[in-house]
Aminoglycoside phosphotransferase
Amino acid sequence: MELKKVIAVRTAKTVYRDGDKAIKVFGDEYKKSDILNEALNQARVEETGIPMPKLIEVCKLDGKWAIVSDYIEGKTLQQLMDENPAKTE
């Protein structure tokens, strides 16, 4: 995997695009259990049938935890919430 194209930066995490994959790399302050919990939550949402990026793997890249998912073109959840604040509750 190549971590060259940054598509999002958040506090202590960076999301990269590598072809048809999105790689979310977490900072050192994240515990293994936090990463695995996020991956579990993503897998649970996948099982509902809601269209979303499919979880591919949880791994370590250059000593940092990462979640690899399919890359899907479109708006982020944050963008949708910002555009539709009445629907966020």
